[in-house]
Amino acid sequence: MTGFHLVVQAPEIATGDLKALARLCSGREIRRITDEAFRIEGADPSTREAVAAHGERANLDWGFVPDGRRLADFGLLAIDMDSTLITIECIDEIADFAGRKAEVAAVTRSAMRGEIDWPESLRRRVEALAGLPESVLERVWHERLRLTPGAELLVAAAKRSGLATLLVSGGFTCFTDRLRDRLGFDEAWSNELVIEDGRLAGRVTGPLVDAGGKASHVARLRGALAIGKDRVIAIGDGANDLAMMAEAGTSIAFHAKPVVRREATYALSHCGLEGVLALFP
User: Fold this and answer.
1) DSSP reduced 3-state for 237
2) Other beta carbons within 10 Å of 119
3) N or C terminus: fewer CB in 10 A for the chain?
4) List 61, 82, 92, 210, catalytic entry
5) What is the mean pLDDT of each run of 10 residues along the chain (281 residues)?
6) Does residue 146 contact residue 88 with C-beta atoms inside 8 Å?
7) Which of 17, 80, 92, 210 is catalytic?
8) Is 241 assigned a catalytic role?
9) Model's pTM, two decimal places?
């Protein structure tokens, strides 16, 4: 029978909380991974409910990980872009240049919670961008787009460990293509904004990368690599990531909406993307 250890992560972890969790999970020994991550060895996963309750109270990320599981055991890393690989929602920032950020951001949040149809939400939000000069895309890239802490570390580690890397997003190619080149992703897929006479036309073109589109790219690449779901990690934050995450044996909800946290294998709500490397060194 496979043993487990409990990985506990947060920017600040009190010694008392670690000891309490070790007692709750019947762990044998506490080992430091980094200053912000610890491993409790010999943990009993049947104590998940009690561990979750303590983690919630203490603002800690936690996860029961099979002993010996390493990043190199996987074959594919698939990750969402907006509010996952990067800290912003690009469409909201573009809309800011039209004075419509609050309106568009409200639709974005509702779509990410799974409250409204995602393709319809994209149509409405992209229409709000109509007439903006193409130059606003450059401004968002240079002035507002920032990588999530740990993003470069995670992608570099995945590549060193031999994983294929896939950036798949309901956002736009003008950002995903550049992030692909900057970080060295093997593939990047998203939606293409239509530009007419140097201005945004208020629509996208080509196959829509929605929830189903994200999932199909993960399934396609998994098939090309001839690997099972058990060797796929998928990371996302919104309801439109759930189908993609269902194509992965290991799914990680990153600073995610409740509907995503409920479905994911692991949830990282307090640390950065380097937290994936604490789970799977």
Assistant:
1) coil
2) 16
3) N
4) 82
5) 90 96 96 97 97 97 97 98 97 95 91 85 93 97 98 98 98 97 98 97 94 97 97 96 97 95 97 98 94
6) yes
7) 80
8) no
9) 0.95
